[in-house]
Amino acid sequence: MTNWAARLLARTIDTRLKPIGMSSGYMPVMFALAHGAALSQRALTEFAEIEQPTMAATLSRMERDGLIRRRPDPEDRRAWLYSLSPEGLEKSIKVREAGREINEAALAGLSEAEREALLAGLAKVVANLETFLGSAKATR
Fold first, then answer.
1. CATH number at residue 14
2. Considering the chain, what percentage of its residues have pLDDT values greater than 70?
3. Which of 5, 14, 33, 92 is the 20 to 30 A CA-CA neighbour of 70?
């Protein structure tokens, strides 16, 4: 059920974001950089919890689309720092609005207590899976 819900949420968000030239894959980067931060690819990869090649491809597409800018990292000559462009900052507001709208639609009909219980339960599931993945990595 969680997989089904996640796929439906992503599809619904993608449908909502498509008219502004965005996709749900951009959301973690948009959220991480929305407050004017400039972050490395490594920091963005850790924030989004996705594989490095996926982040590299996402950043490449976002740069191509004019949503982010990159500049050399003054503390690491091998790295780049990424930040939102003015257009990216403008679109980040629309992305947040879409996220709130879709979350509200997904939670419609649930009481406040049910919403809190659902979110608390999902937080426990996430923590359990992160612990499990950490344990699995340690045994390799």
1. 1.10.10.10
2. 96
3. 14
